[in-house]
Write a structure and sequence with these properties.
This protein is an alpha+beta fold and 142 residues long. 34% of the residues lie in helices and 35% in strands. The protein has a five-stranded antiparallel sheet. Helix 1 runs antiparallel to helix 2. The radius of gyration is 20 Å and the shape is elongated. The protein starts with a helix and ends with a strand. The relative contact order is 0.16.
Length: 142
Amino acid sequence: MIFPGIGLLLVLVAVSLTFVDSTGGIDYSWLSMLCGLVGALLLCGGGELAGIFGARLLKGKRMRAHAMGLVESIELGRGIFNGRALVSLVVSFAGEDGMAHRTKTNALVSLATLSTYEKGRPVVVRYDASDPDGGILVEPAN
């Protein structure tokens, strides 16, 4: 919720900068455009996307274990970005230790493959074997 709030504030700053006269050789148009662009990205879910991509990059290096899992629930997020939907998934799987795990994760899923993440569908789960409940990456099962 913080990213949309910051985005709204930046958009308001951008709008207010359009009413400021350029005096003393200072041109506020570039600053206004930058604030407006960053604010719009944050309002449209850019902060969530950055969090997902950043987490995916960090997690991908640690997540060597994999298992077959089952989608327990799927919830669509607030937007579609380049033909991909932001979704929240609850996935259950059995780890290498034989214990059952149930984890919630966010993913950016192509609209063409969205049906492969329906409730009850099998998925491939990648996770850190030392902390299976710490976070997962989910891919559709072939």
